């Protein structure tokens, strides 16, 4: 294969960037879900605070 | 008498109005709770379809499509470089539509869509530039040339960077959305420059060979894997965009609840 380094390099960088996008999307979604669950458990949306 | 739905849609389109069904759909999607339900069901299918299509596309690229008679195997960089370039532009167009949705129609999900699209578009533009550079070195003898296509694509990456920075710089989401929308619309002038730069100027970069008036100039043995990869990248990008919109909606709920909690604690302390 001619110019193998350039071809493999291009695919490797594309794979890394796409993987970073996917990991970022999954981690960010989980962080927000956890934060929302914690706030709702504390009754953050209610005027009276958490339910007894 | 009530017209059949499809006939009413055709009459509305002929009168230059969007059909009632799409109007209703857009209105229904404006409800974040409804959007979360619908997108939650759609997202796994979209992600699975993009993964399968990507696997099939890579199989075609590596085991079916031939090496180029001049470029040899180096032509295989095309199958990631060209879809990445298309998606860099595609996500900018999505951001322009979202910016109009924010400024003109005040659609509640428009700025959320705009914010979710920016990092994805930036990533694909970066992939396009890096893979183009790695393709350019063995074919042109240089990693970089300040020609119109390459430079306008670099300008697009810088605009994406500016948009991402502006989202971070303004804390209040509605104010940030308006500022980003204006910047996005100003930056939209670069989109036709990227697309037509190879026609307007003499560039080292080759002219369009797929979407052109006379039809594609690429042989089917290379065109089909290219289109499969482009569709796979598009589905992947849309899945990431949908996921990003959902996360941004959650982030805004978290922000609202945090403010409400702080207000309640303040009131209790007083």
Estimate the helix proportion of chain B, in percent: over 70%
Q: Any low-confidence stretches of chain B, pLDDT <50, length ≥5?
A: none
Find the biggest chain interface. Answer: A-B, 32 and 35 residues
Q: Could you tell me how far the N terminus lies from the C terminus of chain A, measured between alpha carbons in angstroms?
A: 70 Å
- Class by alpha and beta content of chain A: mainly alpha
Strand proportion of chain A, as a percent range, falls in: under 5%
The proportion of residues forming helix of chain A, as a percent range, comes to over 70%
Radius of gyration of chain B (Å): 22 Å
Number of helices, counting only DSSP H or I runs of 4 residues or more of chain A: 1
Radius of gyration of chain A: 22 Å
**What's the SSE pattern of chain B?**
HHHHHHHHH
Structural class of chain B: mainly alpha
- Strand/helix succession of chain A: H
Mean pLDDT of chain A: 87
Number of strands of chain A: 0
> Can you summarize the main beta sheet of chain A?
none
Individual helix count of chain B:
9
* Sheet having the most strands of chain B: none
Indicate the proportion of strand residues of chain B: under 5%
Choose one word for the global shape of chain A.
Answer: rod-shaped
Question: What are the defining features of this structure?
Answer:
heterodimer; A: 52 residues; mainly alpha; B: 270 residues; 9 helices; 78% helix; 0% strand
């Amino acid at each position: 294969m001619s110019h193998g380094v350039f071809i493999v390099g291009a695919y490797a960088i594309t794979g890394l960037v796409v993987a970073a996008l996917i990991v970022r999307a999954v981690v960010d979604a989980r962080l927000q879900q956890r934060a929302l669950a914690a706030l709702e458990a504390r009754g953050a949306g209610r005027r009276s605070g958490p339910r007894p | 008498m009530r017209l059949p739905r499809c006939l009413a849609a055709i009459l509305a389109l002929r009168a230059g109005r969007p059909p009632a069904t799409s109007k209703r759909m857009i209105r229904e999607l404006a409800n974040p709770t409804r959007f979360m339900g619908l997108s939650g069901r759609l997202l796994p299918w979209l992600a699975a379809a993009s993964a399968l299509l990507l696997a099939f596309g890579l199989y075609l690229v590596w085991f079916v499509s031939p090496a180029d008679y001049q470029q040899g195997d180096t032509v295989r960089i095309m199958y990631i470089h060209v879809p990445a370039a298309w998606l860099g532009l595609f996500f900018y167009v999505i951001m322009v539509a979202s910016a109009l949705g924010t400024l003109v129609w005040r659609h509640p999900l428009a700025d959320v869509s705009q914010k979710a699209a920016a990092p994805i578009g930036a990533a694909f533009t970066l992939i396009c530039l890096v893979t183009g550079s790695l393709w350019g070195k063995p074919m042109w003898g240089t990693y970089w040339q300040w020609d119109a296509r390459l430079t306008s694509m670099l300008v697009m990456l810088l605009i994406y960077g500016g948009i991402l920075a502006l989202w971070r710089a303004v804390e209040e989401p509605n104010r940030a959305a308006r500022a980003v929308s204006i910047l996005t619309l100003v930056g939209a002038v670069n989109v036709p420059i990227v697309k037509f730069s190879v026609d307007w100027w003499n560039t080292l970069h080759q002219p369009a060979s797929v979407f052109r008036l006379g039809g594609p100039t690429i042989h089917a043995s290379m065109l089909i894997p290219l289109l499969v990869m482009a569709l796979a990248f598009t589905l992947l990008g849309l899945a990431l965009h949908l996921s990003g919109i959902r996360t941004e909606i959650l982030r805004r709920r978290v922000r609202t609840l945090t403010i409400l909690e702080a207000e309640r604690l303040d009131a209790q302390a007083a």
